[in-house]
Amino acid sequence: DPGRVLSLAVDAAHEAVERTPELLPVLKEAGVVDAGGLGLAIILDGLSRSLRGDTLDVDLAPDVPDTAGWQSQAATLHQTEHGSPGYCTEFVVSGHDIDSEEARTQIAALGGSLLVVGDATFLRVHVHTATPDDVLEYGRTLGEVSQVKVDNMEAQMRTFGGEPAPSNVTDVGVVAVASGAGIEAAFRGVGVTKLVEGGQTLNPSAGDILAAIEACPQDQVVVLPNNGNIIAAAEQAAAQASKSAVVIPSRSIPQGVAAVLALSPDLSFEENSAAMEGAIAQVRSAEVTRAVRATTMDGQKIEAGQAIGIVDGKLSVVAHSIEEAVLESVTKMGPETASLLTVYSGSDVRAGDDDALADRLRKQQPNLEVELVRGGQPHYTYLLSLE
């Protein structure tokens, strides 16, 4: 009797799920059961009910925050008017009352492949231009220019016959897992080829990642999972791909961004992969959110609703307010040897609150450049990156 077999399987599955905290200490510590096992039990239950003809009046749709109103401050990439690669020019500007939109307009007139990210006190600029001196001169009118990098792409692209050689970077596809309108726009802005929706509580399957790899026009692809829970699926997808694919084990959005920025036209695929892994090792990351239930994690007791800061994957801060958790998390991240703090505000942050927090951080850490990006990511109120 198939119905009887399914009914027994459902009972056994739920009993097994209830035992999972005894099998895995981290589940017991967090006060939860294994999510994958519970999902399988629910599937079996659904099959059993369907076979019996039962109906379910249950809304199983997840409560996903609305991020439609969020916009990234990252510009989209623009093509150069004449197709000439010129010089890849990168720098940061520190100042006061910087009009980022006006800066974007002025610099766009001087080149292409433009990316401008930042706020009224800090901008990071990437542009391909034939006149890097003019771009830098304009940057100095906005404030103090630092971290200047200029690469001659014209020389890199010339071959013996005078035909342009394809850049190693354009020959490398990049697949990144991300969630949030601003985060996704930022990844597109720095040249990610394909995006896969996913993140905390929304893990894409290996099939989803494999489809993105195969959709890349390049024969060589790097994959950025940007979450520790997604690395295994990414590695499975890379192993099944019909093209050369390598997983860069990024465990956070900030690590993923740093990895993409490490791509260089001067390096081979293998060298770029190594450079990207080196880049993520230089980034310290933190996630700030509120606890959804009372639990114990990493030996610390947490009450439901308290703000928590997770630094490099370890619970490091328990506070009463989100702002306090952010400030303490930055202190725990070791800002003494860093120069740049990037703050990604989430979908639940009210307009203006992130600006006020960025100002507090600048006062608390006067030696750091503080960059604010409205990421619009769900689940985490703030993501922090220190480099």
Characterization of this structure:
- 37% of the residues lie in helices and 24% in strands.
- The protein is of the alpha/beta class and 387 residues long.
- A 6-stranded mixed sheet has the order 13-12-9-16-14-15, with helices on both faces. Strands 2-3-1-4 form a 4-stranded antiparallel sheet. It has a 4-stranded parallel sheet with strand order 6-5-7-8, with helices on both faces.
- It is globular and about 80 Å long.
- The N and C termini lie far apart (62 Å).
List the helices and strands and how they pair.
Elements: H1 2-23, H2 25-30, H3 35-52, E1 87-94, H4 100-108, E2 111-118, E3 122-129, H5 132-142, E4 144-152, H6 153-157, E5 172-178, H7 181-189, E6 194-197, H8 206-215, E7 220-224, H9 231-240, E8 244-247, H10 253-261, H11 269-281, E9 284-290, E10 295-297, E11 300-302, E12 307-311, E13 314-319, H12 322-332, E14 340-345, H13 353-364, E15 369-374, E16 382-386
Parallel strand pairs: 5-6, 5-7, 7-8, 14-15
Antiparallel strand pairs: 1-3, 1-4, 2-3, 9-12, 9-16, 10-11, 12-13, 14-16
Key traits:
single chain; 387 residues; Rossmann fold; 4 domains; 6-stranded mixed beta sheet; 4-stranded antiparallel beta sheet; 37% helix; globular
**Cα-to-Cα separation, first versus last residue:** 62 Å
Number of domains: 4
User: If helices are DSSP runs of H or I spanning 4 or more residues, what is the number of helices?
Assistant: 13
- Major sheet description: 6 strands, mixed
Mean pLDDT: 80
* Alpha-carbon Rg, integer: 24 Å
At the fold tier of CATH, the topology name of the largest domain is: Rossmann fold
What's the CATH H-level superfamily name of the largest domain?
Phosphotransferase system, mannose-type IIA component
Task: Give the SSE order as H and E letters.
Answer: HHHEHEEHEHEHEHEHEHHEEEEEHEHEE
Strand content: 15-25%
Shape: globular
Q: Low-confidence runs (pLDDT<50, min 5 residues)?
A: 58-84, 155-169
Record the strand order, biggest sheet: 13-12-9-16-14-15
The class by helix and strand makeup works out as alpha/beta
Number of strands: 16
Q: Portion of residues in helices?
A: 25-40%
Instruction: Indicate the CATH class of the largest domain.
Output: Alpha Beta
- In the CATH hierarchy, the architecture of the largest domain is 3-Layer(aba) Sandwich
